[in-house]
Amino acid sequence: MARRVPPRSAGPRGPAPRDRDATRAPASGTGGGGEPHCYLLLGEEDVRAEEALRALLEDLVPAEWRALNVDVVDAAETPVRDIITRCETLPFLGPRRVVVVRRAEALRAADQDALASYLEPAPPPSTTALVAETLDRRRRLYAVVQRTGRVIPCGRLDPAALPGWIRARAQAERKTIGPEAARRLALLVGGGLRELGLEIAKLAAYAGDRREITTEDVEAIASHVAEATVFELMDAVGRRRAGRALRLLQTVLTMGEPPVRVLYMLEDQLRMLLRTAALVRRRAGRAEQRDVLGNRAWLYERYQEQVAAFGSLDPAGMLALLLETDAAIKTGVMAPRLALETLIVRLCTPGSATVDAPAAEARRDGP
Description:
The chain is α/β, with parallel strands linked by helices. It has helices spanning 20-23, 46-60, 66-69, 80-87, 109-119, 140-148, 162-172, 179-189, 193-207, 215-221, 225-238, 242-254, 259-282, 286-293, 300-310, 315-331, 336-347, 357-365; strands at residues 38-42, 70-74, 98-102, 127-132, 150-153, 176-177, 212-213. Helices cover 55% and strands 8% of the residues. Strand 2, helix 4 and strand 3 (98-102) form a beta-alpha-beta unit.
């Protein structure tokens, strides 16, 4: 590709730019301490990317000039030559112009290199903001943005930061939410910010004139309550509290959860406990906890408590119980509810590794 591209005609945007090399100052960016002329909003969390982009535009372009000086293109649909041409266009009346390139990960390798060659020598007339879920860090474009501009991480939020994000979003809805209610909401919904935002909007509407969103509101309205109840169920199993565990199982089934799905959630919870036990043995740091537990890393201390309550975990025996229960349900050997109740009783009995239907019947019908 040629070193320069023809600028747009003056038209309504103002006079055509002069020679690029004559008008552009030497390259400056984060590396040289100057103001960045290109930005990369990088990560799969689209809510964080939108928040970062909104803050960036508010900082770079005054609201009264934004309609004329913010150009948004989709990299999957716009040739790189057109993107560069837009970057060559001078601001119209306002102090600065921004070209937002969405889905920058769609740029082909050659197009990335062409854009890098354009951005590297000196700041263009327009600031460039690339928005991408992923971008190959080995390629030149990433290196150029990192050296002359600024990379803004927009990945999934650290699980430990979720309650704080929830409280801030609740404030935006003119509500307050306490730490315990925020943690409960994160447990129920997970780490996806878009899903959390939707749930907070529902909770704000449910609270009505009340200022505070309570834990009771969260449990009444938020989605995925069954997963949280299974967490409590496993907590009761770990403490060998069979009566409470069976009552919680009844709660989950009353919610309408299919027995096979309840079994899957129990297995998932058990696997998280086994991973936590391994982390505890290795005295793993926070980074490894995040790698192993993913968006549930913020529950590490709670998992630790359950591991401690279980004592010496027997992975083979416990997983064997789950597999036997699964087979008993699918083959019709036992009624689904009875099979799950039997599983809970056995899990609460140290050293047990078989499913014993008569014994479970006796326990269920007993006092």
